[in-house]
Amino acid sequence: MIEINLIPDVKQELIRAQSVRATVISSSIIASIVAVSIVVLLSLYVFGGQALRSGATDGEIDKKGDELAAVEDLSEMLTLQNQLKVISELQDNKNITSRTFDMLAAVIPPSPNEARISQLSIDSETSTIRLEGQTRSFDSMETFKKTVDAAVLVYDVDDEEVQVKLAEDISTGDTSFGEDADGNKTFRFVLSFVYPEELYTSSIQSVAFKLVINGNVTDSYLGIPKSIFTEAAQDIQGGE
Fold first, then answer.
1. How far from 230 is each of 93, 225, 226, CA to CA, in Å?
2. Which residues contact 174 (CB under 8 A, 6 or more apart)?
3. Given a cut of 50, is residue 36 above it in pLDDT?
4. Would you kindly state where each structural domain of the chain is located, as residue ranges?
5. What is the pTM of this model?
6. Fewer Cβ neighbours under 10 Å: the N or C end of the chain?
7. How far is CA 178 from the centre of its chain?
8. Which fold has domain 99-227?
């Protein structure tokens, strides 16, 4: 049997193109339907699920708020808790300024070079102590100044003794001669110095004070200006 193709090649190409176009259109329609479905599902989740979750959260917040509102004297309790917290922080960071009296007892020289303090001020911002007082003479004031310079702060850390110099940048000023209430001549002065933070910090439970003057703590040393002292000359060895 003999078959003869009576359809021209051009017609066949047209039929093939129409078939491909139909396939592409069908695929596009299916992809569009899938994309629209995904968008609809996401919209339902965002606007529906999130709204339900937000509503449940709001309901829980309202429930807890009602429970707190039902607590008697709630505002007073919260205020008291905040005050206790602040008090605790202040307690931990407070300065133990009462140590000043122990310090003065340690650095004021004995008679006849004692110093009488009339006014004392502590500047915690600059870590400075300012003393206004009077002594019987300029030499007694110098003795007091050197005693302050020789004082050290002593405390323990892990059962080991630590020493910190009590005063840095010691200076004197506003000096003048005068008379006290009994008519005795006095020498008025102002002495200031920078103290270490260990002096008043509450993290150190116990402190003590002592004088360290290169091993020399005699009254004669304290009463004479330091500029007078010098090291003894060494003997020349070998007859040179």
1. 44, 11, 8
2. 132, 188, 189, 190
3. yes
4. 8-67, 99-227
5. 0.52
6. N
7. 45
8. Gyrase A; domain 2 (3.30.1360)
CB 190 within 8 A of CB 131: yes
Return phi, psi of residue 73, to 5°.
Answer: 60, 40
Whether the per-residue pLDDT at 130 is higher than 90: the answer is yes
- The answer to whether the bond into 112 is cis (omega within 30° of 0) is yes
Task: State the DSSP string of 52-93.
Answer: HHHHHHHHHHHHHHHHHHTSTTHHHHHHHHHHHHHHHHHHHH
Helical (H) or strand (E) element with 11: helix 9-43
Mean pLDDT of 106-131: 89
Residue 192 contacts residue 175 (beta carbons within 8 Å): no
Say if residue 111 is exposed, middle or buried (CB neighbours under 10 Å; 0-12, 13-18, 19+).
Answer: exposed
